[in-house]
Design brief:
Two copies of one chain form a homodimer. The first copy, chain A, is α+β, with helices and mostly antiparallel strands. Chain A folds into three domains: 269 residues, Bira Bifunctional Protein, Domain 2 (BirA Bifunctional Protein, domain 2, 2-Layer Sandwich); 132 residues, YbaK/aminoacyl-tRNA synthetase-associated domain (YbaK protein, Alpha-Beta Complex), CATH 3.90.960.10; 96 residues, 3-Layer(aba) Sandwich (Rossmann fold), CATH 3.40.50.800. Helices cover 26% and strands 28% of the residues of chain A. Chain A is built from 15 helices and 30 strands. The interface between A and B is large, with 47 and 47 residues. Chains A, B: It comes from Crenothrix polyspora. Chains A, B: Keywords: Aminoacyl-tRNA synthetase, ATP-binding, Cytoplasm, Ligase, Nucleotide-binding, Protein biosynthesis.
Chain lengths: 571, 571
């Protein structure tokens, strides 16, 4: 296509509410425009990217045997009442009444609708397993829409739903979907991780999130350097350490530590590493009025999700107040320690390898130095995984060590089991002729979100750097000052048509603009491959090639350029 | 694709609310399923048809330089308030409030949104003309959703909007769009007419509707046998007749016509053709209490839209009540006539050629026979086009005569002028450096409606007959009793892959079902070309070919079948 035909809508100004880089670049590059809070119009360039995400997703859904359907966005309340979600779903569900005063919602997801379809259409076990999917507009009345299309009120999802006779079949399809998602994100050309996840409000037991890695990601992910293991950092297990506890060397000492309350203050005051300090946290126990002491190495963070799952600890996790601490430890928080402590103690596993450590002395302004298990206090009987993993921890699957990165959730797969099919009586007649509730899986990809996530992962100070598979155009054709040279104009037109004929998606920048302006636009909109044509090059029968990721252009003979690009594009 | 993979959802039962054939067949063939009143899920087979409509539409929009965008379905009330439509649009506009109590609607159309985009994005006359389009889900809260996807509450539209500096540019784009629409409907393979239309509530002056012809259509269309002239029957002009009025032959006679009130009764009673009778209708005049007599040939129908536009006639057209008729004519309706009538008389043009006609005598139970203009009463001074055209009338453009057919409106193009751009201050700086309001056109195609309209036009008692361009699959491959013959199975599989490789969209019916059942399904879902394979044919190295439109199958050598189909499909 030609830029002269109003295709580009690049701008310089960034509105103040665009705080994340993808939102800024999507506006600057003219991919989207804001209509109202959380509502965006996709401009031609952005829509091209969106369609590529859709196309790759659709192709892989077809490969796993998905049947594409298209369900209404408008959903009757009655179905949501069957599953109880009409009442449970919060104000994020956009609700409305039709002219006959009947209740509807704008679907944020389609479990109820597909389950209704399945219970009507599927009669026999012979039809199972079956996968339905759609690529469709969804609605969520976000309290604070933000980050552009990343957290908007209207967005495009691919949602798939599978129905099964038994758990083995559900697991098979779940695994196939996991693989399809892996293929999809690989085809997008994005760095991503599939992480073990909590399934949240959609329900069910087993689920994985697919995260595009980006420094700006909302979620922290721990993944193995040597395997496919990855988990939301809250979920990753910190294994029992394998080494031996070093022997005690120094004698126990009581020291004054005036005004030193936090581990940071204490370690700085004593000129020791935080990991030499023991952190003691007093939280409420499960029984009314009871408290529990949690022990962690000074450099580790308490993982509240893990802690509140432990028997004896109150859920949600609640820290004891000063009065409760005083009653239990006879001191204020900041000087607590396990030596001589008369309440239940639960120690993080890492604590077991500590020796000659520092901890509070249960007297305000005092700590013990060179504390050792078995000598100064008993080795903790009750150890748990209490902490959030850190970079370098061994991977829970035993392969390699963990790296922590940030990610943007763009996909989520769930085993729903009978959560919806049970409530909605979606069953079939099995081989034995008996009615049986179907099991379900559901599988989502945030199609519009992928576009933003791709930018969060791939950009520089000059603009977007599209992976070729998602780029609105694969190649930019930039003739410099074409309007002053008929020869250049003719050659550029000819090359444009040659590239099109070779099946290359080329954007012909035929605007009457300065070369610098042209290059800046092409870099801003992130076209991965750029051909620069000039009169000087034509004298030598060459054009310049510049990758978006490179600063240097290289000369390529005009006669080689098609083959050169086809190799770059692997077509 | 293979039918065995849950692709078909054909059923025998038709729900009682499916009254039109397209609705019945879409349910029976498994193209759609009802979720709630006016809300349908598109099943895989239906979605394939929908996508073909979209694809052809998109390709032709690209050819006229349309820029594809995607606007939100959710639209803020503020923009609708700018044009006054928030108040004017009736209960068909689905309205809702977000969690912050702000007003939104679900767009039935996008004039406000695109005008807002244009006023923000377009700065200079150099950017004009510009055409934006989208293919998107629309909402209309129909009081009585019916006819399946033909009049549903959620549907897919292609809507395009153009912006212009002047009327000449608007007319150019309008003409190009008219041509693009013609190409689109031709490519669909549908019989259609572009008709001059009223522009209704969207506004503007010039507009055309595109109607798919079908006996079940809601609208009657008059079109020329010899030109492209077509108009909604209400709009088509009945020209002044060109012949001479025959001379009077018989003497005026007053006859008794007891209980003969209607033209049908009267003409039957007198054994004459209705066209020999004069129909006199008394309607209210523009001035309070006044009435007007309208004269029509007995076989013609009053066109109320034409009549109420005439000066002196009340609008909306209102018939006089019995008391008013009695005061004006001294008789009851059924015996009224123009002889000696002392009120304003407006005659339809055709009436001028009547001679020796019958009309009411303004005395209950009596009529005049052999009435003649100029002899028994004055030739009407005031003649108008009062009637609806009938088959055989001369075409208003002077070329050929009119045929009346019924149509389903599937497209509509408008010249909006400055209706929206004026209200929303959408202007640009023109060549002279001055601010100028842009002119607009808008162009819609009811994408989901096209699917239903195609079926209304193309079906028989066995099911749908798809035009090849819209068929979910071009070719059905039906091996008979394949599961009993390995040789047949191998040949069928081989042919299936050969056809796929040849770029033919083939549906392989690999279900373990009886041949009759298979054929019935393929005919119901309307696949245009069917290949039947059997063991007997294989002995002779032939397969059978049957067109959906034909009752007879023909033998084709197996080696020729690909070429044969490619010719049929013109690929």
């Amino acid at each position: 296509m030609r830029t002269s035909h109003n295709l580009l809508n690049t701008v310089k100004e960034i509105p103040a509410d665009a705080v994340v880089i993808s939102h800024q670049l999507m506006l600057r590059a003219g991919l989207i425009r804001k209509l109202a809070a959380g509502l965006y119009t996709w401009l031609p360039l952005g829509l091209r990217v969106l369609r590529k995400v859709e196309k790759i997703t659709r192709e892989e859904m077809e490969k796993v045997g998905g049947l594409e359907v298209l369900m209404p966005a408008l959903q009757p309340a009655e179905l949501w009442q069957e599953t109880g979600r009409w009442e449970k779903y919060g104000p994020e569900l956009a609700r409305l009444k039709d002219r006959h005063d009947r209740d509807f919602c704008l679907g944020p997801t389609h479990e109820e609708i597909i389950t209704d379809l399945a219970r009507n259409e599927l009669k026999s076990y012979k039809q199972l397993p079956i996968i339905y999917y759609q690529i469709q507009t969804k609605f969520r009345d976000e309290i604070r829409p933000r980050f552009g299309v990343m957290r908007s009120r209207e967005f495009i999802m691919k949602d798939a739903y599978s129905f099964h006779l038994d758990q083995a079949s559900l697991q098979d399809t779940y695994d196939a979907m996991h693989e399809a998602y892996t293929t999809i994100f690989n085809r997008f050309g994005l760095k991503f991780r599939a992480v073990v996840a909590d399934s949240g409000s959609i329900g069910g037991a087993i689920s994985h999130e697919f995260h595009v890695l980006a420094d700006s990601g909302e979620d922290a992910i721990a993944f193995s350097s040597a395997s496919t293991y990855a988990a939301n950092i809250e979920k990753a297990e910190a294994l029992m350490p394998t080494g031996e506890r070093p022997s005690a060397i120094h004698a126990l000492t009581l020291i004054d530590t005036p005004q030193q309350h936090s581990i940071e203050e204490l370690s700085a005051f004593l000129s020791i590493a935080p990991k030499q300090c023991l952190k003691t946290l007093i939280v409420k126990g499960e029984q009314d009025g009871s408290v529990v002491a949690l022990l962690l190495r000074g450099d580790h963070e308490l993982n509240t999700i893990k802690a509140e799952k432990i028997a004896g600890v109150a859920s949600p996790l609640t820290f004891a107040n000063d009065g409760e601490v005083m009653r239990a430890c006879q001191c204020k928080p900041g000087s607590i320690g396990p030596v001589g402590l008369a309440i239940t103690i639960i120690a993080d596993r890492s604590v077991l390898l500590m020796s000659d450590f520092v901890c509070g002395a249960n007297q305000d302004g005092q700590h013990y130095q060179n504390v050792n298990w078995g000598r100064d206090l008993p080795v903790p009987l009750h150890t748990e995984d209490l902490r959030t993993v850190v970079t370098g921890d061994p991977s829970p699957d035993g392969q390699g060590s963990l790296t922590i990165a940030r990610g943007i959730e763009v996909g989520h797969i769930f085993q729903l089991g009978s959560k919806y099919s049970g409530a909605m009586k979606a069953g079939i007649v099995n081989e034995a002729g008996k009615y049986q509730t179907m099991l379900m899986g559901c599988y989502g990809i945030g199609v519009s979100r992928v576009v933003a996530a791709a930018i969060e992962q791939n950009h520089d100070e000059r603009g977007i750097i599209w992976p070729t598979a998602l780029a609105p155009f694969q190649v930019a054709l930039c003739p410099m000052n074409m309007h002053k040279s008929d020869r250049l104009k003719d050659s550029a037109e000819q090359l444009y048509h040659t590239l099109l004929a070779a099946g290359i998606e080329v954007l012909f920048d035929d605007r009457k603009v300065r070369a610098g302006f042209m290059f800046a636009d092409m870099e801003l909109i992130g076209i991965p491959h750029c051909i620069i044509m000039g009169d000087r090059g034509l004298d030598a029968n060459t054009v310049e090639y510049k990758a978006r990721t490179s600063k240097e252009a290289i000369d390529i003979p005009l006669t080689d350029i098609v083959r050169f690009l086809q190799e770059k594009l692997a077509i």
